[in-house]
C-alpha cells in the first residue's frame, strides 16, 4: 500500500489516523460514449484541514470548490477540530511548557542587562 501524505505539509498520515480526503474525478456529460477519469485522492492532516478552512479562500475555481467542501466538513462536526488540537498538544508537549520557557527567557534577559 502506498503511503499517504498531507498535500499541504507533506507529513505522512498513517492509515488508521484521522485525515480529510478529497476525491476528484472527471466525467463527460451529454457526450456519447460517456467517459470517466480515474479518481484521485488528495489528503490533508487534521491541522492543515482546519487551517485551510479558517484561512482566506484560495485562487482558482477548483481550489475554491475544494476549500468550500473542507470548510463544510470542519464546521459540521467538532471531531476534526479536536483531532487537530490533540495533535498540537502533542507537539507542545514535546516543546515544553511555554510559561516555563518564557519565564526562563526573561530571567536570562535580566541577568544579561
List keywords for this structure.
alpha+beta; 113 residues; two-stranded antiparallel sheet; 4 helices
What's the quick description here?
The chain is α+β, with helices and mostly antiparallel strands and 113 residues long. It has helices spanning 46-54, 61-76, 79-95, 98-112; strands at 4-5, 12-13, 20-24, 40-44. Helix 1 (46-54) crosses helix 2 (61-76) and helix 1 packs across helix 3 (79-95).
Kindly state the number of beta strands.
Answer: 4
Largest sheet: 2 strands, antiparallel
What structural class should be given to the helix and strand makeup? alpha+beta
The amount of beta strand, in percent, is 5-15%
Give the total of domains. Answer: 1
Shape: globular
What report would you give on this structure?
This protein has 113 residues and is α+β, with helices and mostly antiparallel strands. The protein has one domain (4-25, 35-112). It has helices spanning 46-54, 61-76, 79-95, 98-112; strands spanning 4-5, 12-13, 20-24, 40-44. A hairpin with a 6-residue loop joins strand 1 and strand 2 (12-13). It is globular.
